[in-house]
Amino acid sequence: MKWLWRALLVLVAVPLCAALVLFLPIMMGRLSSPAQVTLPGGLVELDDGHVNVFMVRTGGDSVILFDCGEDREAKVVLAELKRLGLDRGAVKDIFLTHGHPDHVGGCGQFPGANVYTMVAERPLVEGKVAPRSPFARVMGPLGDRAIKTTVPMSEGQIVRAGSVTVRAMGLPGHTAGSAAFLVVGDLILGDAAVATSGRGIRPAEWLFSDDKPAAIRSLKRLALQLEAEGAPINAVAFSHSGPLDSLKPLLDWAHRN
Fold it and tell me: E-assigned strands of 48-175?
């Protein structure tokens, strides 16, 4: 029987070691996310386990969500709404950085909200195609997590919601229709990059991206575009790390690559 136990141990240990080899370098060195932080422009970052959700009030009793987190019950978002004296009906608009499961899981809790995605991301968000990254493709299409896009967006489109203006900027590469959003002077990059513990940035990892070279090109293009515009950026926010307090780390990276 000893040989059987050894064989079982090998069967468990080999994939575990392989996972550690793949994931440890990716997860190490990231700037940790606080449980909750309000960025200079008023954007609130909420830590939903291993992914961040962003919320901003639009005046009155309405809010915008940027992504919905992985938790299908959206407990973190609902708790923040309750703290503000609001209910789930306050979520009038949801802007999705992309359609991976950890970004759309809680969207079903807000059936009355308009859902904004880039045109190229719509098939993924609506479950009509499967993600193409090495890690995500094993999960297949979203299935019952799929959500209908009510407002497909184009590059540079500006949407006004109450007192808040949202500018959508395409970042194809992590997924076909990944997007960044500029809102209240804060830049949301989604999974296009993470902040490092040294206050630099690191672009989307190949394991989770459809096309890493394309993702890098998109991120560099966006950085140089914002630099050329002289756009005032108060903070840069990421889905899987803490935020940075200026655009400079992104510009430094763009000029090096």
Answer: 52-57, 63-66, 91-95, 114-118, 151-153, 158-161, 164-170
